[in-house]
Amino acid sequence: MSLADLSATSLSGAVGRREVSCVEVVADHLERIDALDPLVNAVVSRRPSEVLLAEAAQADTELARGEHRGWLHGLPVAVKDLNDVRGLPTSRGFFRDAPPAAHDSLVAARMRAVGAIVVGKTNTPEFGLGSHTYNAVFGTTLNAWDQSRTAGGSSGGAAVAVALRMLPVADGSDFFGSLRNPTGWNNVYGLRPSLGRVPHVGDELWLSQGGVDGPVARTAADLAALFGTLAGPDVRDPLSTGPARGPRGDLAELVAPDLTGQRVGWLGDLGGYLPVEPEVMRVCERALHGFEDLGMEVLPRALPAHGRFRGPDDLWSAWLPWRHLLAGSALEPVHAVPALRARMKPEARYEVEGLLGHDGQPPLSAAAVMASSRLRSDLYRAVLSLFDDVDHLVLPTAQVMPFDAALDWPREVAGRAMSSYHRWMEVCALGTLVGAPVLALPAGFSADGLPMGLQVIGRPRDDEALLGLAAAWETVTDHHRALPPLLRGLTGGTS
């Protein structure tokens, strides 16, 4: 069995005890990337192997001197291609000749600070838009379980690289399911943290509360370990929150809690509001028995009205103006350059046009943004009322099973036409809009062997409870031990 088949926390322990060398760990992962990445296209802008092995040798030298930088010491990672890595281009799936970044993003810096060796970037769709990882710079990332299907997105490269053991863990990010869709579709774990738990240190600090960075991992322990590295306040983000970070990000043991007597609210398709493929519902409803096996009670629940928010029919009204404001504003400088605008995919132009106005539609007004925010505020209060009765809320991670990778996005779901490139992902809107932590759990497989996930919305700010739930989930399910077909015969059959 290759060292690449071990979990990140297992590798960390073996390296720390000097049972294996950092060179061996990096070499085995590079061998896996060489073997499988040509089939799935998940890792891009890869650094030269000789440079990476030299850095691994230096990490071994540090260990020999008694210097241990943290739990990722000598382990390889790749950073999502929306985040900067010093010395590597940030293409964002659009800029073909992007210059090397001068500085690390917060995500890259925090992983490097605990010893990680950055091998390259993970592929993302153009500007991270849409849950299908394809772009004109690097091409399409394919599903770890079926290379004719989408990997999801925008963290598609990260999810596939972790699922195929090309990386032990990876960072992802999530605005509208960008971490939840691909982890569900590739049978790995993901966590969209509470707002502020992983700092945002971008250009605009006060309004950009949609996208958050979070961990992708094969096991609950790995997920918790990477979350512990990424999370923690930073003075550069005035809205960041949570406990202060330790100096080295050492591992803390993750213990599966006793969840007996806790209650899970099953939201399903929001009372028929969301079109959802029957196979998605079949897999997810079967997966609910896992909560019962943990001694939890599963209860059907509806999304209630509160104030201006009248129920699920108002979800899209709360969502779309806010999305146009944030995504459109970020893309407007690119859209303003005619040569670049001509290269933008329709999904990107849609967001800018929703901000600036198009085809007779007026520009987005401050009044419309404020009305959307008030609606979102009452949605938050509605969700808080559900937590008076239950401990977690559960929905599918997607409304469709992984679709044909040759498509750009599903135009129809369960017989209902989709009005935009992301309307079919609306199942992810609730968790984003309320800013609560959302855990993506492996839920099982369709009749033809495709993965699906469950998203578990936790109480605001209680990310740690979701990590405990993930650890408990592994005691009653074995989905995380299943191997993608590309790995069968290469490994010993476990994670």
TrEMBL record:
Protein name as catalogued: Amidase
Superkingdom, natural source: Bacteria
Coiled coil spans: none
Domain Amidase: 24-467
One MF term in the entry's GO annotations: catalytic activity
Entries under Pfam families matching the protein: Amidase (PF01425)
